Amino acid sequence: MILPIYVYGQPVLRMEAEDITPDYPNLKELLTNMYETMERADGIGLAAPQVGLPIRVVVVNLDVMSDDMPEFKGYRRAFINPYILETAGEMVSMEEGCLSLPGVHESVKRPDKIHVTYLDEEMNKHDEWVEGFLARVMQHEFDHLGGTMFIDHLSSLRKQMIKGKLNNMLKGKARCSYKVKTLK
Ligand code: NI
User: Fold this and answer.
1) CA 165 to centroid of ligand 1, rounded, Å
2) Sequence-separated contacts (24+) of 163-167 with Cβ below 8 Å
3) What is the pTM of this model?
4) Residue numbers annotated as active site
């Protein structure tokens, strides 16, 4: 089932998401719906708050990037209760977008390596270092679980430049090809 994607201005995007327990009701169904919603919207990542749920659940699909990055062929994963324990490496700039911020694309500086823990779809615990593109996607998605959006990392000048677009979203004007839930 395709879920509406909550857009900038929705309070759930600013909440601190909570860990879930293994007996969280209908988790498999939620993950299926999140994958479907993300893929229909051509996203590479989706965090549960973006579908209105303040819980620590994220799905990622990097298969769509595999023409340029063959290591991600077939890469589709869920991350449950993820946490970034530490970061390392250089700060790297790359353009980001977000399904909750349609039409906004800005360069964001993030560390290249992260030490993460999470549970996979089968509730197996992982503790690993991740780097490069996946580390960037994880940081963007896991930020959502703390109520942070990528625009929070921009300089005040860049924030000023996108203010008009953000105000339009607050007024319920979001231009995109997928189903959204705006504040108004
Ligand atoms: Ni996002």
Assistant:
1) 16
2) 165/101, 165/103, 165/104, 166/8, 166/101, 166/104
3) 0.97
4) 141
